[in-house]
């Protein structure tokens, strides 16, 4: 018999949060939800807190505290608001924290969970991009456990043999190539918000959908993979695999390649993180190999998708550069979603901000936060200049 695990879901109203809620509701005997958090959507947060039977609900936007309190009146669920309440949610003694906030906004709460030695199902890849090595040091120091939720990293985690990092020849990080995989730069210049949001294989939040279209998502995932699985950078290769069935592969020193396959559904890697070290059952459609027919593979094109080159550069240079890359990208994507800049300008902006601000050696976590704030200011100024 397995014991019931308590779960904190950071970002419960998002795509990862909702998929997590579905997996949990399908296993009421295995999980109990302790805390849930969201940014601004009070009605959805309140209704999910009630349906999940949570004890503690946090709205990140402090100005919405009274609204949340009203929405939860009579339910017995404690309402809270603001950054410190997000940290409190992560610090409560739940067994697992699902880090499903988008962007560097999730960093403080994830660190709080790490520092109490929690098991963390990490979807929020931007935190590892920004604070990677410092975060991994804390994971060791506080004896926390990081289980990747990102499908590629979950795949690698699942096929990684114990203490095998020195026996790995290559990690093959697969990429769908996104909706513009076969498009020319000229064609991409006119891409609309709607076209960029329509991913061929996955249904996801807005920011990661745009990241997939520019392939910055794969760039961030490359940095994420280097942090989670510390092999030499040139051993991690990006491989375009448009069917999104092979979620990633590891090639060992003897030439064996181990892969994890599945349908493109985030509930599978989320269930893996929630159940770890056991596997949960999920009644999802299974892979139909004869219907798929063929797998295909291509090399990534760093000319049409400069985000890949920029991410490699940030990784190689290290220091504060990955933080700058991430912050510039977060703001550029938001500006594209607001129709303030064009599609190609997203990576042009990231490149310009990175070029204008040479990397510094990263000293500590406060340096991460300070750089994030500064890089946002630089990017905002540049966007304002462009939109003149
Ligand atoms: P989403 O936009 O659908 O949801 C984001 C969640 O974070 C929401 O609950 C929102 O309320 C909350 N949030 C947003 N800004 C916040 C802030 N400033 N402070 C506090 N909370 C805030 O995003 P998503 O697609 O679920 O992605 C979440 C994370 O998971 C991202 O880092 C993404 O890269 C990663 N991820 C997502 C998928 C996917 O399929 N959606 C797959 C792999 C990895
Ligand atoms: Mg992924």
UniProtKB/TrEMBL annotation:
Chain positions recorded as Mn(2+) binding sites: 150, 152, 221
Keywords (A to Z) from UniProt: Isomerase, Isoprene biosynthesis, Magnesium, Manganese, Metal-binding, NADP, Oxidoreductase
Catalytic activity annotation: 2-C-methyl-D-erythritol 4-phosphate + NADP(+) = 1-deoxy-D-xylulose 5-phosphate + NADPH + H(+)
GO MF annotations in UniProt: 1-deoxy-D-xylulose-5-phosphate reductoisomerase activity; isomerase activity; manganese ion binding; NADPH binding
Binding site for 1-deoxy-D-xylulose 5-phosphate: 125, 151-152, 176, 199, 212, 217-218, 221
UniProt cross-references to Gene3D superfamilies, sorted A to Z: 1.10.1740.10, NAD(P)-binding Rossmann-like Domain
Domain DXP reductoisomerase C-terminal: 261-377
Residue ranges of coiled coil: none
Listed GO biological process terms: isopentenyl diphosphate biosynthetic process, methylerythritol 4-phosphate pathway involved in terpenoid biosynthetic process
Name recorded for this polypeptide: 1-deoxy-D-xylulose 5-phosphate reductoisomerase
UniProt source species: Thalassospira mesophila
């Amino acid at each position: 018999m397995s014991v019931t695990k308590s779960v904190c879901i950071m970002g419960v109203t998002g795509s990862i949060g909702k998929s997590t809620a579905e997996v949990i509701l399908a296993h009421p005997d295995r999980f109990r939800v302790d805390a849930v958090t969201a940014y601004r959507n009070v009605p959805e947060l309140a209704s999910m807190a009630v349906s999940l039977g949570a004890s503690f609900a946090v709205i990140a936007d402090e100005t919405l505290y009274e609204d949340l309190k009203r929405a939860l009146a009579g339910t017995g669920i404690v309402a809270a608001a603001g950054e410190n309440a997000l940290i409190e949610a992560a610090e409560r003694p739940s067994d697992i924290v699902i880090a499903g906030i988008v962007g560097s906004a999730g960093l403080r709460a994830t660190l709080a969970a790490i520092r109490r030695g929690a098991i963390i199902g990490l979807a929020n890849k931007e935190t590892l991009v920004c604070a990677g090595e410092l975060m991994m040091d804390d994971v060791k120091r506080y004896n926390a456990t990081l289980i990747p939720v990102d499908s590629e990293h979950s795949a690698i985690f699942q096929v990684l043999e114990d203490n095998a990092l020195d026996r790995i020849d290559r990690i093959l990080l697969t990429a769908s190539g996104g909706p513009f995989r076969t498009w020319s730069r000229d064609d991409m210049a006119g891409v609309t918000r709607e076209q960029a949001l329509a991913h061929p294989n996955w249904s996801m939040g807005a920011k990661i959908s745009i990241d997939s279209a520019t392939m910055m998502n794969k760039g961030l995932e490359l940095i994420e993979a280097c942090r989670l699985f510390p092999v030499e950078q040139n051993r991690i290769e990006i491989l375009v695999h448009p069917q999104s069935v092979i979620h990633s592969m590891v090639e060992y020193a003897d030439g064996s390649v181990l892969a994890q396959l599945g349908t493109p559904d985030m509930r599978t890697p989320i269930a893996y993180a929630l159940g770890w070290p056991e596997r949960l059952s999920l009644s999802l459609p299974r892979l139909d190999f004869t219907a798929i027919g063929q797998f295909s593979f291509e090399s990534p094109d760093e000319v049409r998708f400069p985000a890949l080159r920029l991410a490699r550069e940030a990784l190689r240079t290290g220091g504060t550069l990955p933080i700058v890359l991430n912050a510039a990208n977060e703001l550029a994507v938001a500006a594209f979603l607001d129709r303030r800049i064009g599609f190609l300008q997203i990576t042009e902006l990231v490149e310009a901000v990175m070029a204008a601000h040479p990397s510094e050696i990263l000293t500590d976590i406060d340096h991460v936060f300070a750089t994030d704030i500064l890089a946002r200011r630089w990017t905002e100024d540049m966007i304002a200049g462009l939109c003149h």
